[in-house]
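Hi W., the adenosine monophosphate complex you wanted:
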Amino acid sequence: MKVLLIGGGGREHALGWKIAQSPEMSKLFVAPGNPGLNHIGETLTIPENDTKGLVSFSKDNNVDLVIVGPEAPLAAGLGDALREAGIACFGPDKAAARLESSKSFMKEVCAAAGAPTAAYGRFTAPAAAKAFLREQTAPYVIKADGLAAGKGVVIAETLNDADTAIDEMLAGQFGEASAAIVIEEFMTGEEASFFAITDGVTILPMIAARDHKRAYDGDQGPNTGGMGAYSPAPIFTDAVYERTMRDIIEPVVAEMARRGAPYVGVLYAGLMIDNERPRLVEFNARFGDPECQIMMRRLNSDLLPVLHAAACGKLEGQRFDWSDNAAALVVMAAQGYPGGYEKGSTIHGVDAANNLPGVVVFHAGTRDQDGALVANGGRVLNITATGAHLREAIDRAYRGIDAIDWPQGFCRGDIGGTAL
Ligand code: AMP
Ligand code: GLY
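Structure:
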């Protein structure tokens, strides 16, 4: 099978690493890739937002399957364009990707499907939004309706801060993405990320992982894309799993099919779990980053045939075999992230980390510069490790961190602490 993998983060390095182990893979192209992926596949210079370029490359090179890592190309219609050209794509059409790209659409689908989520209102005018706000209690949750690269959520403790967030967003803080906003009920509990693959009808559940979104130890500091993760997540009990499938994933997949927008790809449910009751915080139309890396470390069986089957509407009968081992991941980020940071500092020790027991390093924001590895983004390296139990996986991941020599980087020291 000839595969084209779109993206260049830690998530895509992990997907490429896993797919490269498949006996069914004959050729892997990556666009744009990163220095980790570039050892595994052939790098293309086509940007991930060049829908036409990606479709014509796939046609000209008889690509059998395109796997889309990030959400932006999906929201821009890459899935539609590939399918129109007769090329199998793992990732939803634009209409189905709206589960991620429009918070109010997600809410509307949840209401129709009876899936539990926070109560909400949608607004395009500040006065109506502020009136609604005054019927809520603190803390106030204000979100840009559209895609804002994970930055479009404000949790305000005071009415004053909430009003400011409403004014800024509706004045165009995130452009079109915040032309409308959603104000929702604040949910309490513990968060977990759960993933399921679907061809639009059949659903193949994956596993849950726990992300650490805040930048600093003790869940302090600003929200980030994710500073670390682990799996299994003790909070995700069998009862939570059954309720998530029955009350959220199954009815939402059925509702999308009923609307004529069948969801093909991986559905990522960000959950708030209270007293073993899961409620939906958000859907994403893609694998989580860094959760994907953790899942790839725990997946024993082949991934590629499952993704291909999902893309071709033939998921029925496919299975996953998960390891009983635990996996943990610690992100090394550039100092200053998620705010401003420098690029170009030199990183040593990746090979030494990779030689440690259970450790695999996935690249995110790195670049090759005349044979040296340099930092080229906010989240730069993902140090993953497996172990017989969570404690061992976490300890091994931190031994991997110790092997990395990169003074301009930082990481959290408490990944996995919530589970131990
Ligand atoms: P989102 O981008 O929608 O996932 O929001 C980012 C983060 O904000 C989530 O991971 C939660 O930690 C928090 N959050 C979002 N919505 C709510 C809510 N309704 N109640 C409590 N926390 C929330
Ligand atoms: N780790 C959170 C995300 O991928 O959105």
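The chain has a mean pLDDT of 96.

W.
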